[in-house]
């Protein structure tokens, strides 16, 4: 019905954003027709139907042309699916989350690896797959991926608060006693 169509289109148009343009090629009331399928095929679009039927020839054409037809009985579900689809098309946004801080207490030369910082985990945790920045004074002197994380010569995945460990950050070799290592991960931001 026309009374349902206008609020639906209005709601969909509000989803448009800077990264993705939502284009409504056609909107009408009534059964989904073969002409609707041909327009969708030519435009590489999909068909969204709300409380409508599909003509049998339109269903056959959609199957042969690879056109997706989605039908809904609840407007909210239609809007939710389109929103999810658009989120999946947008470039992901990440935020940095600090997971722990450690203090360098000694520096060791390890054959085949180079210089390794002997640390004490002050807060949080260190993770082998995380990133770390080396802070000397109040300046960041290096930022990179954790390449080695060891506890008593054993490779570990996580070091918790209060433990001593060895760490290597990328190709960095200029660790100094008193440096602070801040461990962080990049987490995807959900909209």
Explain how this protein is built:
The strands form 2 sheets. Strands 3-4-9-6-5-10 form a 6-stranded antiparallel barrel. A two-stranded parallel ribbon has the order 1-2. A hairpin with a 2-residue loop joins strand 5 and strand 6. The protein folds into 2 domains: 88 residues, Translation initiation factor IF- 2, domain 3 (Rossmann fold, 3-Layer(aba) Sandwich); 95 residues, Translation factors (Elongation Factor Tu (Ef-tu), domain 3, Beta Barrel), CATH 2.40.30. With 191 residues, the chain is an alpha+beta fold. It has 4 helices and 10 strands, in the order H-H-E-H-E-H-E-E-E-E-E-E-E-E. The radius of gyration is 28 Å and the shape is rod-shaped.
CATH T-level fold name of the largest domain: Elongation Factor Tu (Ef-tu), domain 3
* Secondary structure category: alpha+beta
Order of helices and strands: HHEHEHEEEEEEEE
Strand content: 35-45%
What is the name of the CATH superfamily of the largest domain?
Answer: Translation factors
Give short descriptive properties of this protein.
Rossmann fold, six-stranded antiparallel barrel, rod-shaped, 10 strands, about 190 residues, alpha+beta
Summed up:
The protein has 191 residues and is of the alpha+beta class.
Which helices and strands, and how do they pair?
Layout: H1 2-13, H2 34-43, E1 47-50, H3 56-65, E2 69-72, H4 75-89, E3 94-110, E4 114-127, E5 131-136, E6 139-151, E7 154-155, E8 158-160, E9 164-169, E10 180-188
Parallel strand pairs: 1-2
Antiparallel strand pairs: 3-4, 3-10, 4-8, 4-9, 5-6, 5-10, 6-7, 6-9
Helix pairs in contact: 2-3
